[in-house]
Amino acid sequence: MGMASGKKKELTVEPPKKSGPPRRGAGAGGPKRPVGPRSRHATAKSASRSPRPLQDANPHPARAAAAASGKGEPQRIAKLLARAGVASRREIERMIAEGRIALDGAPVDTPATLLTSLHGVTVDGVAIAAPAPTRLFLFHKPVGCLTTERDPAGRPTIYDRLPDGLPRVMPIGRLDMNTEGLLLLTTDGGFKRQMELPATGVPRTYRARAFGEVSQQQLEDLFDGLEIDGVRYGQIEANLERRTGRNQWIEMTLTEGKNREVRRVLEHLGLKVNRLIRTAYGPFALGELAVGAVEEVRQHDLILFRKTLKGGAA
Description:
It catalyses: a uridine in RNA = a pseudouridine in RNA. By secondary structure, the protein is α+β, with helices and mostly antiparallel strands. The protein is 31% helix and 24% strand.
């Protein structure tokens, strides 16, 4: 009975060794803190706190100024200028390298300069106004012009075919020289990039006239995607519309928009594309828009569309 009583006392002594405070006189520095839920929590808590004083002690001047004035998070000057429709980010970087962009009269030396607004920014000595609301235009691109601002070989571009009176616009994606149909144009560089990201997944619909023979089953197999010369193409919805002699009219909807995707996929099936028309991009359709004509999307419709995009509005 005495032994049982001794064991009982021993059991009541052990728990404080594990969970109680360290004993005094346990050697230099005392015992190590036991590894348990409590100590892990304390370690994580202290670890999360440790960088904070460093971050607060020396914030970026632009961020400190924004916080003090209550303004939004600063952004790179190249991004702000692109969103204002001045030029693409790549073009802006080139303009900065040429010394054409200044802030409060001093040339900007890096596109990574952080600002909360374009106040005091000039391009070629001209002050930049606050960014206007994003605008979106539908353009019926004709055959025979490039989707680019300028061509070293002097070939015609879409800017040679656009009507007068438009603001500075940038194409969303590309249509090659021999492809016609719907091309979206925007004044907002950020919106342009968002639309071009594969992850955004906006569907594009094309009608292709192709020479050769193909079955509806072959077209339906494209729904599983395919690989051509080491390039993987994702899901494609394709339907045979009608035959005219040995020419087939095929409608295809895809979301990736890789370079010359429709032509390469149909050529892989043994067809030769002799006409390609983009008829829709997301909810925006070519409809009866005349070749070379431009039509602006209503602000209300544009705002609703941007809310449906993955990641929200840019």
